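Quick start: read one record
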Amino acid sequence: MQYRLYAPEAIDCVIDLPASKSISNRALVINALSGSREIPDNLSDCDDTDVIVAALRDMPYEINIKAAGTAMRFTTALLSVTEGEEHVITGTDRMRHRPIEVLVNALRTLGADIEYVGEEGFPPLKVRGKRLEGGRLEIPGNVSSQYISALLMIGPRLTNGLTLHLTGDIISRPYIEMTICTMQEFGADVEWIDASTIRVKTGGYRERQFFIENDWSASSYWYEMAALMEIENGKLKIENSPSPQHPSPITQITLTGLMDGSRQGDSAIRYMFSVLGVKTAFATKEKLVPTNVTLKAQHCTLPRFDFDFINQPDLAQTLVVCTALMGIPFRFTGLQTLRIKETDRIAALKREMRKLGYVLDDSEEGVLSWDGTRCEPDAEPAIDTYEDHRMAMAFAPAAILFPGLIINNPEVVSKSYPRFWEDLRKAGYQTHPLTPPIKGGE
């Protein structure tokens, strides 16, 4: 499937954002470890969460986690402490080429019975659940935070608890904090005992009702739209000085169910886009209460944007596309993990941005930059999505500056935001299906 996209002249809409996938997946695993059969409230309806729900509900011998990296890591740890159970956990072809050795080695150190069914270091895995002793464990802090979260969540079920020491630089720290906060809300005794060590005491979890807030990551694409709606023919609309008789349409986007003071690391998107001219207004001043958030774009004079994404790597694609299209040179660091996501996101961004006429540089490890270098864009750009939901959603707003932009395989958004295209249509976008498919340029 392909969509040809046309953006409206302005956007004035209220969007019901999806629930947080990250919190949903953590809450489901912890809820299962507590012994509860109650499903958390406002659970995400995305693919990544659905596969965990199905696995916990049916517990088949072979669990197909599909393309859900979080589910693969969390479920592997969960199965390792599910006594008396034996399962094979597998996924898509891409999943079978995503490394999991660091987590498997850590679990084996704790006593887990895990073997590789195919290639060493990669799924599928055969896991035989049993009682694990726990104790002290050391792993690098610059690996995926999902490995760290997976280990922490089983900590209360270990006979001797878990003391997890993270060596070197610690990346994606907000995701670790999210895990710790969710564990604490279910009654776990877990805390940082120094800057790089987390202690989890044995004792299990308590059953409780749990409400999941909406997703700040999903809001990022709406921030991008708000920013790009202020660009017209490569210039800010505000510079065009519309006459009182013909004022420019005003864009106002309201997003539901977000929290000020959220535990989600990606809530930092509001500060990133503040420097790009998009201001955030909360409907209430109360912290940690789901409320409406209104976005309004203003004049942006930022000459350059440098940012370290070490704590928010999932926002990088949105900011790369948006900042370049705004004509703002950038240097984004802390992107080491992007090469082992759903696709090699750095390579994918370089290739697809070139189709729009932007030449990115990745000559430094973990760094992606743009110095303003342009090339001839494709006459009819068609964006490949590489089975990566964030590629589709980060590039969709580019239709504001590239009318008729084509998105290949748009259905990939179901991984985290199944209603994305429906919400775009609600905002006034036209999404025309194409048959036969139009391939992207080389």
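The longest helix spans residues 21-34.
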